[in-house]
Amino acid sequence: MAMLTLAAAVVVPVLAAPAAEAAGLPGGFKSVGYLPSWAGSVNAVQYSKLTHINYAFVLPRADGTLGAVENPAKLRSLVSLAHASGVKVLVSIGGWNGGDDSAFETLAASSNGRTTFVDSLLAVVSRYNLDGVDIDWEYPNPGTSGDRFRLLMAQLSSALHGRGKLLTAAVMSGGYTATGIQPAVFGYVDFLNIMLYDGGAPHANYTWTIDNVNEWKSRGLPAAKAVVGVPFYSRPNYYSFAQLVARDPANANRDCATVNGGQQCYNGLLTIRRKTEWATANAGGIMNWELSQDSTGATSLVSAIAATAMAATVAGRTGTIVGVGSGRCMDVYWGRTANGTPIQLYDCNGTAAQRWTVATDGTVRALGKCLDVTAGGRVNGTKVQLWGCGVGNANQQWRGQADGTLVNPQSGRCLDAAAYGTANATRLQIWDCRATSNQRWRLP
Known about the structure:
Helices cover about 25% and strands about 25% of the residues. The protein is built from 9 helices and 23 strands.
């Protein structure tokens, strides 16, 4: 993992589910975040946008026992909060540890060592009510070391799966050393967290990432078990994404920035969205190192991953858009097609005036025209309307969030039923995002 070792713009359309459905994420898509024992608050984690959290790290000993769990109160709080949101928590064993994996090598070399290790892990899983274990042995080499890893994972798989628990592993990006993870292991794990960072030029770029995932898949790793790791930090020096955005908000949409006279490269919002879109179709999800390094608000990478994954499931779909708070449909007034026609709530009736298409370009369309913020307005209360679609019009772009809101990126405000209205003919507008019931929508 990073600290302990550890291109093109894509418009993200709107999402498919209200907040109550968001935690599962679509189609079995996994959003995995590591949370270190030494960094980040459990109260700052965006649980509704994650499926799994790996608590890092607990170190193995050569005799198969485990070192102490650091900050155990934090782990207990994490488990409580995560489980309340339907998120699974695993303990991650190992990590870079200065490149010293000798404890793994020794304990995995004997049946007694492996059994002691398995028993030690089961005790920790039980003590903290964990959902499983993530093995971060960095790295078993091909040959004898790889054989030991395979035997260890086989025994762990039997013990954990027999108790309804998960087994995952963090593995390196690719190349010869990655072949220390033998194909038999693919059947033992629920999925692999592929650490697709600290490589590529520029750092963790899109093409390098996809090529490495495809290499794993060519060796027999099922796509659903290939979780694509992304960095929340830069190289060659180590700046968190949050630090980079704090220096210059424009850095959120870049992959490289100049910091103290040197170029630092990372994954900005556009690349994170692009990787997530690819992963929804070609892999099992996205993993990040690590949660405390994310920014907040509109520039959050965790939010971008969740929204993009959800959006990918509805892009191109056509149907009704229903207000969660009202149960009524987004409706074009009297089904008119003239520019400037108001958009309102109305009883769902199956007419063309309520048949919306979530387009892949980020627009939402009905009757051959687009959902539009009047005159490109940016202030609270600006009404939305039907208007002819224009290429790249910022006032016609909508981006879904994991809480069910639809944000117009130009204004930074959400689609809103005016005055918390739920009645027929309630006008729709933009307003400060609050994720209240009048701002949450269920799409096709």
